[in-house]
C-alpha cells in the first residue's frame, strides 16, 4: 500500500467517527510512524509503506477512533516552540497557555525566583526558564505521576549545559503550598477551573482521557483560585506578581478575589479569540 493510500484510509476512518480534524490527524499520525513531514504526501505519496509501519499506523488510528487525544498517541506536544513529553497523567499543553507564559516573560528579570503551582508537565516553568537566564524555578503538583513527566521534560529540555545556562529548576510533590519554601518573585498557575457540573459536557478527548484532578475546579470553578490567592501572599516578595490562566467567564470573579486579598495593578489579558484568558496582579509592600 502506498503512502497516499494509507493516508486516505486513515482520513476516511477518522472522518467516519466524527473526528473534526480527520485530515490533519491522519497525516500527523502517519508522519509520526514513518518519520516523515508534510511534504512526503505531496512529493512521495506513491512510495510503498512497509507492513510493520502500516500495522503501527492502523493501531494508532484505532486509538484515535476511540477519541484518545492525538498527543497521547504520539507522546509529544509542541509548546512555546519546544517539544514536551505528555501522557495521560498530565494535561496537554495548549496554545492559550502560551499567552500566560508570554505575559510572565514580559516581567521576568535575571535572577528571579519563580513558583509554578499545579505544574503538570512542567511546560510553563520549563518554558520560562528556557527563555530567560539565571532564574530559579520550583514546580509543585499533588500528582506524583505528573511530576515524573515534568522531570523527564526538565532533563530533555533543560539538561546538561542548558541547565547551567538557564538557571536552577526542581519539581516537588505538594498539596498546593504545603512544600513551598521561601519567597518568590513570581507565582504562576494554570489551575483546574472547570465547574464540576460541566465536566460531563466536555469533548471526549478531554473529559474521558485528560486527568480529572487537573480539570475540576469545584462547584463554581473557583475553588483553587480562592486557596491560591489567599496563600500566595505568604510566599510572594513585596512587589511580587501572581499570574493565573482563567476560564473565559471568570475574569471578574478572579479579579475580585485578588482585589479583596490586597493585590494591586490587577490586569486582564485576552486570548487570540478575544476572550478573557489571563489575570495578574502585584502584591503590595505592606
TrEMBL record:
Keywords: Methyltransferase, S-adenosyl-L-methionine, Transferase. Residues 109-190 form the Methyltransferase domain. Substrate binds at residues 190-193. Its EC number is 2.1.1.297. SUPFAM superfamilies: S-adenosyl-L-methionine-dependent methyltransferases. It comes from the Bacteria. InterPro entries: DNA_methylase_N6_adenine_CS, HemK-like, Methyltranfer_dom, N5-glutamine_MTase, PrmC_N, RF_methyltr_PrmC, SAM-dependent_MTases_sf. GO terms for biological process: methylation. Residues 8-75 form the Release factor glutamine methyltransferase N-terminal domain. One of its GO terms (molecular function) is nucleic acid binding. It is an enzyme of class 2 (transferase). It catalyses: L-glutaminyl-[peptide chain release factor] + S-adenosyl-L-methionine = N(5)-methyl-L-glutaminyl-[peptide chain release factor] + S-adenosyl-L-homocysteine + H(+). S-adenosyl-L-methionine binds at residues 141, 190. Belongs to the protein N5-glutamine methyltransferase family. PrmC subfamily. PANTHER family: HEMK METHYLTRANSFERASE, MTRF1L RELEASE FACTOR GLUTAMINE METHYLTRANSFERASE. Methylates the class 1 translation termination release factors RF1/PrfA and RF2/PrfB on the glutamine residue of the universally conserved GGQ motif. This is Release factor glutamine methyltransferase. The gene is prmC.
